[in-house]
Amino acid sequence: MTGWIEDTAALEALYGTPRAAATVKVADRITPAYRAWIEASPFCILSTVGPEGLDGSPRGDDGPVVAVLDEATLALPDRRGNDRIDSLRNIVRDPRVALMFLIPGAGTVIRVNGSARISAAADLLDRFASHGKPPRSVVVVSVQEVYFQCARAVMRARLWDGGIADPAALPTPGRMLETMSGAAIDGDAYDRDWPGRAAGSLW
Question: Where is the Pyridoxamine 5'-phosphate oxidase N-terminal domain positioned along the sequence (predicted)?
Answer without folding.
Answer: 30-150
